[in-house]
Amino acid sequence: MDVLQLTNNKTIMKENLIKPYCCCGESENSLVDNAIFVYFSEEYRRVLLDEILWVEASGSYCVIYMEDGAEITVSYPLDRVFNNDLPFTKFKRIHRSYAINLFKVTGFAGNYVHIGKKMLPVSESHKKDFQACFHKIYSKRALGK
């Protein structure tokens, strides 16, 4: 049985984790790119993608770290979350165990990315691709080199 377990000990069935969609004439992509919904306590709760800091693999589970300090544990691997639920325009794989929100990066040097006070490793196999994305986003706003 696949479940989503929140840090407040609530458990959610995996099939109740869904992306939003619209049938009212608005752009479906604008809604899908901004949030996912989780169903628990007999209601749907919206999780804004902009509030996700990073996602970390933990065996066959992964943990989603949020801006407000919440940690959401889902019962499927990072590959599935990263490839199916997170838009590539906002999130980047930096390691076999980590995917980050590119717009939450506060710095990087060598083989580490900083998101707030947290240092996350960047593997050699993902380093070049991450740096290219970082420079594409921030090149007009960066001073120095």
From TrEMBL:
Taxonomy, superkingdom: Bacteria
Domain named HTH LytTR-type: residues: 42-135
Protein name: LytTr-like DNA-binding domain protein
GO molecular function: DNA binding
InterPro entries for the chain: LytTR_DNA-bd_dom
Pfam families attached to this UniProt entry: LytTR
Keywords from the UniProt entry: DNA-binding
SMART domains from the UniProt entry: LytTR
